[in-house]
Amino acid sequence: MRDEVPGIRRQPFFIAILSVLLFAAGGSVEAQSQPSWQIGLGGLIGRPQGSLRDTVGDNAFGAALSAAYRLKRIPLLLGIDFGTVDYQTLKVPASPLVSAETSASIDLVHFLARVQSGHGVVRPYLDVLLGQSHPNVKTNILQFATGLPETSITKQFGDTGFSYGGGAGLMLRVYDGSHKARGLRAVSADLQMRYLSGSEAEYVRRGSLRLEAGRVAFDTAITRHKLLNFGIGVVFDF
Questions:
Q1: How far apart are CA 102 and CA 133, in angstroms?
Q2: Cys-Cys link to 205, which of 36, 119, 152, 219 (CB 3.0-4.6 A)?
Q3: How many Å apart are CA 47 and CA 84, to the nearest integer?
């Protein structure tokens, strides 16, 4: 039995985020000596949202890498953002004879548009992300019987789908090399928060494990990946 979880309305989200992006990009002009690259890497702490939290638990941990190109004369960077997040492993005993262990991860690849000034020690920014997510879900079901070996059943789910989101962050410059004509021009500490809504994945429904006529039975549910990410890292400007 499947429980469909409806997607959220996307149009208002895109209109709000893209309107801010276009206003900032079009309304601010800053002269720069040359275009530059921005490379960022860091760690992630994720908080699953909605029905996903009921399936995989409260916390997720991962890492991210991004590369973006700063356009001339406007505070806009375009690039690509990679991330991977591992959810905590949940062990759910259904009865003295049946238990389940679910592990899950999600791989993320997004086109990144970032509005940010290239000047200043403290530089806030706004991100818009469009791309793909690929969840990997594995449930290992263990069945015990007195005097018999342990029986293991593995169910693996995963599918690639559309993903989108947005967020904001703050960079604090800890090294200033802007006097250089080329090479490393800045190093900054980076704090960010993002909300992502991605593809759906099928899970073994928590609490549905049972024995029927001596065999393990369970129900599945389809859950959309909605994740609130908090990140801390370091950014290099070239």
A1: 19
A2: 219
A3: 14
